[in-house]
Design brief:
Number of domains: 1
Radius of gyration: 17 Å
Strand content: 15-25%
CATH class: Alpha Beta
Shape: globular
Helix content: 40-55%
CATH topology: Rossmann fold
Number of strands: 8
CATH superfamily: Flavodoxin domain
Distance between the termini: 13 Å
Order of helices and strands: EHEHHEHEHEEEEH
Number of helices: 6
CATH architecture: 3-Layer(aba) Sandwich
Largest sheet: 6 strands, parallel
């Protein structure tokens, strides 16, 4: 089984080594490898890619790829090859700009073809994908993360004919994770964020188990 996790953080300067999104992607892969043998996991960090907004040239109708964006094409090809996917996204405004551009281009490719033929099936038709959101707020912020991040991503993925994996009946568009503590400190313009990684591991493990079970049905 090939598992691809997309780390959607844009942060280059603030999180020099690894973003929180990337750390969570590593947990996703580690948990999947514990659950089932033979899982090959890989991470794509969007922050290291140059993904440009769709300009509506329509050339992707002929090529199924973007003629102006090699990094998008690389990521899209990896998504197509994967057996199961996860996207880990922080809450920005509401989602990171590069992730929005990635979703926008996948939607455009699918929409143009579906518009001509309503029986069209995209190259990612029926693929299962898990969504994990996180942000700088504590537990009280989770419902807002769901509505602004998970639901936004899920709506786009539905357009490109992918199958979003629910966490449970309430969290039907994936999992949202809070920080343990967040506060601004005097010597930084960025807030200090403390995560409960034991709690995060437990929740992600539960979600990955459900995702693999659903994918192998």
């Amino acid at each position: 089984m090939n598992l691809l996790c997309i780390s959607a953080s844009n942060m280059v300067f603030h999180s020099i080594d690894e973003s929180t999104s990337t750390k969570m992607c590593r947990i996703v892969i580690d948990e999947a490898q514990k659950i089932i043998g033979g899982v090959k996991g890989s991470i794509i960090e969007i922050r290291s890619k140059h993904i440009y907004p769709c300009e509506g040239c329509g050339k992707c109708f002929e090529t199924h790829r973007c003629i102006q964006d090699d990094d998008f094409n690389l990521i899209y090809s990896e998504i197509i090859k994967a057996d199961i996917l996860f996207v880990v996204s922080p809450h920005y405004a509401p989602i990171p700009a590069k992730l929005a551009a990635l979703l926008e281009k996948m939607e455009q490719i699918t929409f143009l073809h579906w518009g001509k033929d309503n029986s069209y099936k995209s190259e990612v038709y029926g693929k299962h994908i898990g969504i994990i959101s996180h942000g700088g707020g504590e537990t009280w912020a989770l419902k807002s993360y769901k509505s602004m991040v998970n639901d936004t991503i899920a709506n786009a993925l539905g357009t490109i004919q992918m199958r979003v994996i629910p966490f449970n009946s309430e969290w039907d568009t994936g999992l949202s994770l809070p920080v343990k503590n967040a506060a601004f400190v005097e010597d930084s313009i960025f807030p200090y964020q403390e995560y409960d990684w034991e709690h995060i591991n437990t929740k992600i493990s539960e979600y990955v188990k459900k995702a693999i079970k659903m994918t192998l049905r």
